[in-house]
Amino acid sequence: MAQINPSILSADFARLAEEAKAVEGADWLHVDVMDNHFVPNLTLGVPIVEALSKATDTPLDCHLMIEDADRWAPQYVEAGAGSVTFHVEAAAAPVRLAREIRAKGARASMALKPATPIEPYEDLLPELDMLLIMTVEPGFGGQSFLDIMLPKIRRTRELISKHGLELWLQVDGGVSATTIERCAEAGADVFVAGSAVYGAGDPAAAVRGLRAQADAATARASWACDH
Ligand SMILES: O=C(CO)[C@@H](O)[C@H](O)COP(=O)(O)O
Ligand SMILES: [Fe+2]
Q1: Where are the beta strands (DSSP E) in 119-214?
Q2: Looking at the whole model, is its pTM more than 0.90?
Q3: Nearest to residue 90, comparing CAs of 141, 140, 39?
Q4: Residues 110-150: tens digit of each pLDDT
Q5: Would you say domain 3-226 falls under CATH 3.20.20.70?
Q6: How far is the CA of 20 from the centre of ligand 2 (A)?
């Protein structure tokens, strides 16, 4: 079944605990950490992740858009994240970092910006629990989906199948009712949605609607047949 991860970036930051509870029923809560260096925006850090992990039963999917990921990512596991995504562009030693995240008890995930190809990282895939393909330039919510990323999603799904991996394939950026089916058909199975969830009148219903669309599209997709 498709997983839907609402992005708290599109929520009201003055009411984070309530906004987290508004999407209980979602698979994970996506938490965008930005440092104003790796991306031109600043959001939140370890203390807020720690507070959020106590405020909701939904596991936290922390997306770190920060420099020096090797140094900081392990602290997000300690703060209570169930999954920690670092950007390969910001990690000096991605294999060592993925192993450290797993050893500390979280799922290890690696993200690729739109201009970063998947092919150089094929041999790293067994070290990961999830790969995140950015479908916007990281930094802000509410941007338009880059459909030029669909071939990369397809190629990554082929690599996952070729190696027989259990790796989850996440997409993040501009995922909505109009784009989620294309992502699912291309091979994504974890979908981050910020504005499409928190911009809806009923965020929990938006999660259910997106999941139903993704499941229907996956059922039509050829990649899912050999699953
Ligand atoms: O990581 C990011 C942006 O850098 C995302 O997680 C956004 O928060 C997604 O927001 P929408 O594009 O779905 O509004
Ligand atoms: Fe994100």
Answers
A1: 130-134, 168-172, 190-193
A2: yes
A3: 39
A4: 999 999 999 999 999 999 999 999 999 999 999 999 999 99
A5: yes
A6: 15
